[in-house]
Amino acid sequence: MSPTLFVLAAGMGSRYGGLKQLDGIGPNGETIMDYSIYDALRAGFGKVVFVIRRSFEQEFKEKVLSKYDGVIPTEIVFQEVEKVPQGFTYDTSREKPWGTNHAVLMGMDTIKEPFAVINADDYYGIESFQILADYLKSIAVKQNDYCMIGYRIENTLSESGVVNRGVCSTDENGFLTSIVEREKIEKESGSIMYKDEMGVEQVISEGVHVSMNMWGFTPDYFDYSMDLFKKFLSKNGQNPKSEFYIPTVVNELIQHKIATVKVLDTPSKWFGVTYIEDRPLVILRINELIRKEVYPKKLWKKN
To answer: Which of 38, 52, 83, 165 is the most exposed place for a label (fewest CB within 10 A)?
Structure first.
């Protein structure tokens, strides 16, 4: 059974501006997402499902889906703020949907096989996709056995500013025990620093794993997510700024010993356009990977 790649492409890049998912950074206008899908195809993924906002459906179909005709099967699902379970209400002043795990829930009726979740605007690296595909194939007939690609903190920093990262703790067998969001992470005088809840700078050791939102799940994850989303809405539905994140659900399942999450180490270096200043560096890195023949100069014949 080939796993499915589930791409979270509904968000708008507030710090970057505009639909950065559709921003061409390759020599023929390829997006970061194109390189992820190319890597996923090589690793053995059999289908791609995109979650997007309906407001840019036509542009997405023209600029993105058309290039995959005859390459890999694709589907679209939509994330909108009004997509909540029947009987639940929320603050009508709310404009944005409910966060990353709400986006994952949009695939509930479409995805029936093990699946990976990634962000559309992050570059994850060929090794990460192969590691993730291999694990998903190994758990195809299991339940409650998930995984996460763990990036070494030093491989995820931006040269243009501070970043936030979910810092992972694991047990002696490499299973996730918790994810804690750390803010304003940057390298200073050779050390990786972040500011804690009191605003005091703390050190993060190199090699510590962080989450870059690259997950592997089996379909039972949808049922747990729906149950927890209902609880979330009962408590937070009237808060227009509340967010239902993937780590929220994962931490809940781990703490109650419902599921396990294996943290899979990757040597890949993450990069992405967190800030507009990152864009030239991303282009340089892609061109360097093309020079090293990690990618062909033209990914898709239809570009």
So the answer is: 83
* Residues 154, 276 contacting (CB under 8 angstroms): no
Q: What domains does the chain contain, in order, with CATH numbers?
A: 4-291 (3.90.550.10)
Residues 95, 82: Cα–Cα separation, whole Å = 10
**Least confident range of 19-23, 56-60, 183-187:** 19-23
Strand, coil or helix: 146: strand
Residue 144 and residue 285 in contact, taking contact as beta carbons nearer than 8 Å: no
**Burial group, residue 38, by CB count within 10 angstroms (0-12, 13-18, 19+):** buried
Give the chain's mean pLDDT. 90
What number is the average pLDDT over the span 204-215? 95
* Strand, helix or coil for residue 183: strand
55, containing H or E segment: none
pTM score: 0.92
What is the C-alpha separation between 122 and 59, in angstroms, rounded? Answer: 20
Inter-residue contact 6 to 118 (CB < 8 Å): yes
Terminal C-alpha separation, the chain: 30
pLDDT tens digits, 119-150? 998 999 999 999 999 999 998 778 999 999 99
Q: In this predicted structure, what is the pLDDT of residue 21?
A: 55
